[in-house]
Amino acid sequence: MSSANLGTWACPSLHTTNIPSTLNPFLHTLKMLPITPKQGRAKLITSCSPLSVSAVLTVKAKEIEDTQNFNFEVYMLQKANTVNQALDAAIAIKDPEKIHEAMRYSLLAGGKRVRPVLCIAACELVGGSESTAIPAACAVEMIHTMSLIHDDLPCMDNDDLRRGKPTNHKVFGVDVALLAGDALLSLAFEHVAVATKEVSPGRVVRAIGELAKSIGAEGLAAGQVVDVHSEGLENVGLERLEFIHLHKTAALLEAAAVLGAIMGGGSDEEVERLRRFARCIGLLFQVVDDILDVTKSSEELGKTAGKDLVADKVTYPKLLGIHKSKEFADNLIKDAKEQLAAFNPAKAAPLLALTNYIAYRQN
């Protein structure tokens, strides 16, 4: 539903006749700080590989670094549990009960908690503490949940299933679902401002500004509107697709990492390295998501499978085919890990493992 210098974009495996030369120039826009919508319409393409339904990314031993016996599963469970407790405490049932019930229904419905865990890990990486990052981590998850509620509405993706449960509007009605999303959005900013402790006012204001930008007309909303208006169009190209997902998906992941680094007292250089890292894994998340959408069932995903095909949406597999989509993902993995090379390996272990998790997840 969001920036910095990635260095030279090494993508030799994408130089094929099936992929237009416009790909690399566009990827260089990843260097911009911050993202701004490109002027004019993206150059369209007509050549692409046929859609395949082969297996999703395969785990390769050589791709999984030795992170000093770091147990990512335990780490994720511990952090997710802390986040879930904090989210539960952040929204009590009170009058009017209906909207609070609707907010809690989607916010506490489970999920991987990738964004809040990313926020906490980034904070700890630069020397901060979990408790310092928790309010920002919760805020990011509130906004992510808002985006899911709104995405599922009949006027958007019109979906019936989310995180293995009926979508919010199916339970509470479209009117309450819309308002519940609005309430979560406003609560996110209130929570950062009120609940953050032992962080300078300047850093809190900076974090709030980053969060707001990531979801507005230069972030999530920009990606969403271009996505909506791309449905059913013929010859939608890679440049437009990248714009959609840099804003719609990568923006909030970027905000999570940047907020964590800011709250943790990170230097400007550390903040920007984590910004670049998060942008890479944000695109990676979407590439994998697109592959899973055509290779997994609704039961396996916990949401409606194949809905992008039904809606005639442009995706990486549709434009590139599964094989080239995997190659693109491999390059994103490498670039993401390069950004972590400047940090203490032990402290970077959670983010290295998170990268592998995003790359090789099955739902």
Automatic annotation (TrEMBL):
Pfam families: polyprenyl_synt. The keyword Transferase applies. Belongs to the FPP/GGPP synthase family. SUPFAM superfamilies: Terpenoid synthases. GO terms for cellular component: cytoplasm. InterPro entries: Isoprenoid_synthase_dom_sf, Polyprenyl_synt, Polyprenyl_synt_CS, Prenyl_diphosphate_synthase. Its cofactor is Mg(2+). The keyword Transferase applies. One of its GO terms (biological process) is carotenoid biosynthetic process. Pathway: Isoprenoid biosynthesis; geranyl diphosphate biosynthesis; geranyl diphosphate from dimethylallyl diphosphate and isopentenyl diphosphate: step 1/1; Isoprenoid biosynthesis; geranylgeranyl diphosphate biosynthesis; geranylgeranyl diphosphate from farnesyl diphosphate and isopentenyl diphosphate: step 1/1; Isoprenoid biosynthesis; farnesyl diphosphate biosynthesis; farnesyl diphosphate from geranyl diphosphate and isopentenyl diphosphate: step 1/1. It comes from Canavalia gladiata. GO terms for molecular function: geranylgeranyl diphosphate synthase activity; metal ion binding. Keywords: Carotenoid biosynthesis, Isoprene biosynthesis, Magnesium, Metal-binding, Transferase. This is Geranylgeranyl diphosphate synthase.
